[in-house]
Amino acid sequence: MKISAKYISGHENMSTFGKIKYLGHFIAKAFLYAVFSFFIIFGLFMTVYFGDLFYNFSKGNNKLPLFNAYVIVSPSMVPTILVNDAIVVKREAGVKLAIGDIITFSSVDPSYPGLTVTHRIVGRQLSQSGDYIFRTKGDANNIEDPSLVSENNIYGRVIFKIPKLGYIRNFLLTSYGFLLGIVLPALAIIVFDILKFITKCKNKQIDDEIDLI
After folding, report:
1. Residue 123 CA neighbour count, 13 Å, CB half
2. Residues facing 161 on adjacent strands
3. Distance from C-alpha of 72 to C-alpha of 86, rounded to nearest angstrom
């Protein structure tokens, strides 16, 4: 790739303030693009999510969403999954789940009924009704979960995780996080582009005056 002499000389002749301003603009723009990319991916995810729900509803199927996402809030799966990691789960039939898979399910344990839990399958058997039931355990726990998990209580199998995304989500959900993470970078880019446009107009005016002379 060839870089023009005009481009090189332009950056070499840039003042210290100009370089700082250019670097700040670059960082703000990169961060804003990252945030926008996140929202685009999130939008695609929600499209699939609601599209699957609508399809099953129209067909009269009482199925869980095809995909879902959760943020881990306990250390029971350390070191495989850490606190504030985000996980994405995919709906799976019990017959497709195997020992070693990590699943997210609604607990029926009397100590915490209805709590959403993400643990690993360590046992699998077929009930008399023809449904699969599973024995689960957290990787960091010394003992297995006391209650068996029916396939009807399983939200899905974990297909991938996004490390530390929970921290970003929690930050952006606050008023100052939204301000610092989205509003200020966007304003910085807009102001910089306006100043750049004004500078170009002034330079063009100077060039026109020189041509007239």
Report:
1. 14
2. 87
3. 6
Task: Copy the structure tokens of residue 192.
Answer: 């910089």
**Closest to 80 (Cα-Cα) out of 161, 169, 200:** 161
Q: What is the pTM of this model?
A: 0.64
In the chain, which residue ranges form alpha helices assigned H by DSSP?
5-12, 16-58, 165-173, 175-178, 184-212
pLDDT tens per residue, range 8-42: 445 555 667 666 667 767 777 777 777 777 778 77
Which residues does 145 contact at the CB level (< 8 Å), separation at least 6? Answer: 107, 109, 117, 119, 135, 136, 137, 138
Nearest-angstrom CA–CA distance, 26 and 20: 10
| CA distance to 22, 24, 25, 133, 142, per residue, from 17 (Å) | 8, 10, 12, 65, 58
Q: Measured between alpha carbons, how far is 102 from 98 in angstroms, rounded to an integer?
A: 9
- Cα angle 152, 84, 26 (rounded to 5 degrees) comes to 130
